[in-house]
Amino acid sequence: MYRQALRFASVAGLLAALFSATAHADEVKTVSVVDDRGVTVEVPAQPKRIASISYFADDVALALGIKPVASTYMTSGREPDFLLGLTSGMKQIGQRAKPNLELLSEAKPDLIVAIRRYTVGNAAQLEKIAPYVAYNMELLTESDREIAELSKLLGKPERGLELNADFRKHLADYAAKAPKDVHPRFMIMWGGEVPFAFHTENTAASIVAAIGGDNIAGPKQPGGEFGIDLSLETMLEKDPEVIFVYDSGPDRPHENNPIWQQLSAVKNNRVFYVGDQWVETNGPIAREIVLREAAHYLYPDAFPAVDVRAEAARLIPAEAQK
């Protein structure tokens, strides 16, 4: 009789514990996160309607098999190949540097994930629409943390850690296979009368440097910006052998400067106009594709050319491609 009572008590205790755990889980309606503003934000547990100001949240969400409801763009009318053009099925809320808050509100997001430097001034307005989390999205040293944190907020923390581990392995593999006797001088730039070049800590530049490239823009100053204006005269002095230019459209004033034609990269046809993933590189899809492209552009005899959309199709789960 005693044993039967004890067994009953044990089962009852287990059921009570399970009920308590379930009740507690039901009570957990928000998750706290400290973003790159240093602000603590209460985010809905496993948000369903994500709005992305920049492509970073699109990138992370799609890698996790989740499709955001709204997104900004980099260049109007162009859907990024590295995201398979899937942003065309999301509500367009303007250019990333000046999102349209009215359109954002119409999307009824339950989480806004934004690039910090373009949105911190509008924080109060954004917070009225939905919980707003801002990340720097600039440096490779920040990328793993940003991906891990957002994956956790989206309810898939283990997958976020796997994506980070996979990238670190791939980066090491490419670096090991890269030729050791050459270190091509390179730069990554926005076009313009005075080009803007990325310092080595910038995510895309860090990837190129990690596989043997020598960045003519060099490291950033402590506490400084992730990029610098480089005159064509300075570029000629440093003479990059490979130039990556963010392709923001047909306006390319740097090409009209006669100095441009004197650069080794130009004379040797090693100027590459690259896509949005080279600017929005902190997400798991973008940085994997940039790694493969950079390896081919630096060492065309050692690494194959890259089909960006084919790579993206392998990296984005099928359920998110529908």
Strand count: 13
- What's the total helix number? 12
Distance between the termini: 60 Å
Measured as a percent range, the helix fraction is 25-40%
Q: Which sheet architecture does the biggest sheet show?
A: 6 strands, mixed
Mean pLDDT across all residues, rounded? 91
Order of helices and strands: HEEEHEEHEHHEHHEEHEEHEHEHH
Q: Which blocks of ≥5 consecutive residues have pLDDT under 50?
A: 1-26
Taking Cα atoms only, what radius of gyration do you get, to the nearest Å?
A: 23 Å
How does the overall form come out from the CA principal axes? globular
Structural class call reads alpha/beta
How large is the share of residues in beta strands?
Answer: 15-25%
Brief descriptors of the model:
disordered N terminus; 5-stranded parallel sheet; single chain; 12 helices; 322 residues; alpha/beta; 6-stranded mixed sheet; 40% helix
Describe this structure as you would to a colleague.
With 322 residues, this protein is of the alpha/beta class. Helices cover 40% and strands 17% of the residues. The chain contains twelve helices and 13 strands. It has helices at 2-27, 56-63, 101-106, 116-119, 123-129, 140-153, 157-177, 203-210, 232-238, 264-267, 284-298, 308-315, and strands at 30-34, 40-44, 50-53, 70-73, 91-95, 111-115, 132-135, 185-190, 196-198, 214-215, 227-229, 242-246, 271-274. Strands 8, 9, 10, 11, 12 and 13 form a six-stranded mixed beta sheet that branches. Strands 5-4-3-6-7 form a five-stranded parallel beta sheet. Helix 2 links the parallel strand 3 (50-53) and strand 4 (70-73). Helix 6 packs antiparallel against helix 7, helix 7 runs parallel beside helix 11 and helix 8 packs across helix 11 (284-298). The chain is globular and about 60 Å long. 39% of the residues are buried.
